[in-house]
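User: Hello! I'm new to structural biology and keep hearing that structure can be predicted from sequence alone. Could you demonstrate with FAD-binding domain-containing protein? Please show me the input and the output so I can see what each looks like.

Assistant: Of course. The first part below is the input, the amino acid sequence of FAD-binding domain-containing protein. The second part is the output, the predicted structure written as tokens.
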Amino acid sequence: MSALAIENATSIHLPSSGTSYSGSNVPPPVANRPLHVLIAGAGLGGLFLGILLERAGISYEIFERSAELRPLGSIMCLSPNILPAFEQLGLLDELMSFSKPSRGGTMLTDKLELVGKAVATSADIIGYDRILFARLELQEMLFKKIPSSKMHMSKKVVSFQQNDEGVTVRFGDDTTSCGDILVGADGAHSTVRQHLYKTLTKKGILPKTDNKEMSRGYISLVGTTEALDPAKYPGILDEDSESYYVVGDKDTPYTWVTFTVPRNRICWNVIIQLGITDIADDQFKTSDWVPQENQKFMDTIRSFKTPYGTLGDLFDATPIERVSKVYFEDQLFETWHHERTVLIGDAAHKLLPSSGAGAVNAMQDAVLLANHLYDIKPTSFENIQSALKEYKLERFEAVKDQYPQSHMSAKLIYGHTLWERIVRHVVFNWLPKAIQHKQFLKDTAYRPQANFLPQAPKRGSLEVIPQQPSKHNQKAKKDGEEAKERIAGAASV
């Protein structure tokens, strides 16, 4: 059966067993079945959701298009907005083993003159430090928590079909898998989203804003060095991560960033603003992102100064196969779910990078989606639709509120137009630190946790935003109290 035939089928009965099979025969439905979730994408959001579902006792499988984890060299930052969820899952200590706290940052000119310093944070107030590490190490940690029987590599989604019986996903190897819910956690250029939107467009129900292309404002080249010599790089031994943001002048419209991470390494990142130089625009047009192309670009910026010497010194200590080129894009989609399909992370909302906003939001999505999936009792089409709707209602505004700030952060750090340079000067020289600190505390107060697990202990003096309790647990508690009352009443009679 072709993908088109699957899409247009009108009477297909789908099970929730998660069994993959070849061919066109779709198995009959299973009565009174438990919920089974299909997750497309083994990025941070998909893996975190899998771990949450494992703890919730919900059946799931993860399907990743790649044959193995890609060795991305990118820098990662996690904020207190997600660390309580790591703690309640028992993952915080392991996360900290390859992380360093980041309690501030220094911005310099390309001549290494001071521009300003970021507002220092205090764990006494916010409970947790922001932490920095190499992204691949977090992905590897989460990957190892997923049972091998539930992880399927080299499974590229090409299409899916859903109705009131279930959802069937077809992969590039002509196998299929069936379940109750499909989660698109497959990134900014999500195949799940593209197929879903194509279907909704045919039905005439997709908002026009969801069909526009994402805005691409920057290109980033990222990498992590091998272990360095502390005699030459003494800052790598500090307990805190040394964080430097070097902003080029009008003739050098780049920003390059360095962070020290455990095991005597430095993560580096070079950001180019599109529309400013021909070099950046040529890189944007280059479709060949093999290591040789990355090397050509790196050769043009080797002389840029850092507090550790030149960028070339860091490049020479970085294996070229661990250098990655990524776009900084942004778009907030209106449509996050339809029938049995739901989107999380970059598939639903792509933000410009700001303190790990993309990764943090993807994992926050996973937390709140897991909460609503846990409340699906019994497994019915109506309850599934209701849960996905409530997930978006609870989550959408929290994500939407971050877009203005992500744009401002990008302008402050990566912007090179005259207006952006003026804004940067005003913020770092004239804006009172008290106002910056107040905004930081407001942003840090949103910390969703799994409501079906014991909550992480309260840390710091900051009052966090309360979240919705589990409907399932509330109902169980109410039923238990009513049962006790009936027993007590019967005993008195």
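User: So the tokens describe the shape?

Assistant: Right, they're a compact way of writing down the 3D structure. Reading them back into a model, for example: The first strand starts at residue 20 and ends at 22.
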